[in-house]
Design a protein that fits this description.
Number of helices: 9
Bound molecules: S-adenosylmethionine
Structural class: alpha/beta
Strand content: 15-25%
Oligomer: single chain
Radius of gyration: 18 Å
Length: 268
């Protein structure tokens, strides 16, 4: 199956913003759940595909207590530069998820968080993950649920649409493109992976304010490079108004966000 044309490519500056604001607000909450679902344990060889700034690889390494091997792979040099600065003890490798630079059966566990929807050939990437997994090994993927399940970001992107036109639905649409759990399961099966576990979890993206949530969505994603200052100002204004109802005590914002965690095993 062919995926979207949105590949979530960031500049070095946006990669820094991704790590300092988006990772603590959202991605760090999901990483331990993915690592646990996959059964990561000390002594294993673990690969984090499309690692970004490395939050999942770090969660795996921490769980493994220094025993075993963790490698993070991403196509984006800016993301890898941040990852390497934070954790020089983990192996960071530039490469394409569609053509993994590893031999067959090299990893006990292959992880992939919030990224499968950005690959042009999702089925091919899953086949690659299955190829580099050991017989009996696990491939564990996290993706976001459908747009209809995303009250917070759905409202934000609805507000963006008035100022971005089709661009808003292209970027927003890519985020939720793998929200159909049955479709995801069939992609696993087509890649030769038996679905051993699949669950939907609702977490929260937590920000200091509604405006900070919108600013992060701009500065820490490909959006920043695609808009001018005037559009940015209008997005912040409209987006903030749209998500005000998710403000909690003291003005902090908590956007509920639903995602799927799927674990497949490679036939032994
Ligand atoms: C939303 S980020 C998720 C990063 C990380 N997994 C996390 O949880 O923070 C998506 C990542 O997918 C990467 N990516 C997109 N297409 C890729 C490809 N074909 N091969 C490897 N990485 C890719 C991007 O560079 C980006 O770092």
């Amino acid at each position: 199956m062919t995926g979207s044309v949105e590949t979530f490519q960031l500049s070095v500056q946006a990669a820094e913003a991704y790590e300092s604001s988006f990772v603590p607000a959202l991605f760090a909450d999901w990483a331990p759940h993915l690592v646990e679902a996959a059964g990561v344990a000390g002594g294993q060889a673990v690969l984090d595909v499309a690692c970004g700034t490395g939050v999942v690889a770090r969660a795996a390494a921490d769980r493994m207590g220094g025993r075993g091997r963790v490698v993070g792979l991403d196509v984006n040099e800016g993301m890898l530069a941040v990852a390497g600065r934070l954790r020089p003890d983990i192996g960071w490798r530039q490469g394409d998820a569609g053509d993994l630079p590893f031999g067959a059966g090299e990893f006990d566990v292959v992880l992939c968080q919030s990224a499968l929807m950005f690959f042009p050939d999702r089925a091919g990437a899953l086949r690659e993950m299955a190829r580099v997994a050991t017989a009996g090994g696990a491939v564990a993927v996290q993706v976001w649920d459908r747009l209809e399940a995303q009250a917070g970001y759905g409202a934000m992107y609805d507000a963006f649409a008035g100022h971005l036109g089709g661009q808003a639905s292209e970027l927003g649409g890519a985020y939720w493109a793998l929200g159909d759990l049955d479709l995801l399961g069939s992609l696993f099966e087509a890649a030769g992976l038996r679905v051993a576990a699949a669950r939907t979890r609702v977490g929260a993206a937590r920000f200091g304010s509604a405006t900070e949530a919108v600013a992060t969505e701009i500065e820490a994603t490909p959006l920043a490079a695609r808009i001018d200052q005037d559009t940015r100002r209008r997005l912040v204004e409209a987006g903030t108004a749209a998500i005000r109802r998710f403000e909690v005590d003291g003005g902090r914002a908590e956007l509920p966000i639903s995602g799927h965690l799927v674990v497949g095993t490679k036939a032994g």
